[in-house]
Amino acid sequence: MEHSSNSYYVPDQSIWPIVGAIAMFLMLGGTGLTLVDLQTSDHASQSSSIIMYSGMAILIVMLFGWFGNVIAESRRGAYSPQVDLSFRYGMTWFIFSEVMFFLAFFGALYYARAFSVPWLGGEGDKGLANMLWPNFEATWPLLTPPNPEMFQPIKEVMNPWTLPLLNTVLLVASSVTVTFAHHALRHGERAKIKIWLAITILLAVIFLYVQGYEYVEAYTNLDLTLNSGIYGATFFLLTGFHGFHVTLGTIILIVLLMRVMKGHFTPDNHFAFEAGSWYWHFVDVVWLLLFLVVYVF
Question: Domain limits of the chain?
Fold first, then answer.
């Protein structure tokens, strides 16, 4: 559909929304059935696994199909300035929702450190809770949980100035390189875009490898696991979900590099690249906060 500069864009009818709804229904339903199976037996049933993986497969097909349609519509000039503004609002609200997602986890960590653990140690308005475990010493990081029989004590916490610091350097450097790539795109320097974007992807992949190695180190040498009480739970919850977002951001960067190699972007029309860079900068900022709150303080 061609447009005039003042027209309100009306998209063509599409099957992808209903396909996405079916995919989410199957994936979440299959995941729920799988969790029930794991609680009642040692392994998930074949039917539960089929439902879950079918939903995932359909979701991947939907993403390729829907994003492919959007790219094709943009390439043929079907979008008006109103659509571009809608995309920007949509990406802004999406990143805002992700900010609130992580704030909830940071809030849980703060509540545990500032209230729950001190109460169990006898401090504060609810200090009587220390009657549950009168010998418990409230310190943070919490190496010894109140009930060691229920939760596994931790030998030591991860040293922030080793692997976590390396990952911080990697992500900060990747934020710089993706900015250089965006600058090159605005000036039409395609060779530089490919180089800087490829470097950004490489730094992201190294980050994920280092985080995986850190998890192995935590489980094998530090006894820092998901069963290590509130400290272990919040540590893996925050770093794990951030790692998931880094993985998603890396996939976005790879897709952007493929589109750059196909010549999809111009200096004046490249919102997809901007959106990807916004997301990557968000991932970097979250890691800086996470590094300070989880590892250093």
Answer: 9-79, 86-107+151-296
Cα 105 off chain centre by: 13
Give yes or no for a contact between 148 and 228, defined as CB atoms under 8 angstroms apart.
no
Distance CA 123, CA 101 (A): 30
The number of helices, as runs of H, and strands, as runs of E, in the chain is 8, 0
Evaluate whether 180 touches 124 at the Cβ level (below 8 Å).
Answer: no
**Which regions in the chain score pLDDT beneath 70?**
1-7, 42, 127, 129
Strand partners for 266? 269
Convert the pLDDT of each residue in 143-155 to its tens digit. Answer: 888 887 788 888 8
* Rounded Cα distance, 254 and 201, in Å: 7
Per-residue 3-state assignment (H helix, E strand, C coil) for 42-66: CCCCHHHHHHHHHHHHHHHHHHHHH
CB 33 within 8 A of CB 110: no
- Gap between the Cα atoms of 297 and 278, Å rounded: 28
246: nearest Cα among 213, 217, 194, 205: 205
Alpha-carbon distance of 168 to 74, in angstroms, equals 36
What one-letter code names the amino acid at 52? M
Closest among 57, 55, 87, 58 to 70, alpha carbons compared? 87
Q: C-alpha angle with apex 101: 96 to 106, nearest 5 degrees?
A: 120
Judged on CB neighbours under 10 Å (0-12, 13-18, 19+), 140 is: middle
Rounded Cα gap, residues 148 and 133, in angstroms: 11
* Tokens linked to 250: 């890396």
- Residue 2 CA from chain centroid, whole number: 36
Under DSSP, is residue 269 helix (H, G, I), strand (E, B) or coil?
Answer: strand
CA dist 167 and 207 (Å) reads: 6
Q: Specify the CATH number of the domain 86-107+151-296.
A: 1.20.120.80
Q: What is the pLDDT of residue 7?
A: 66
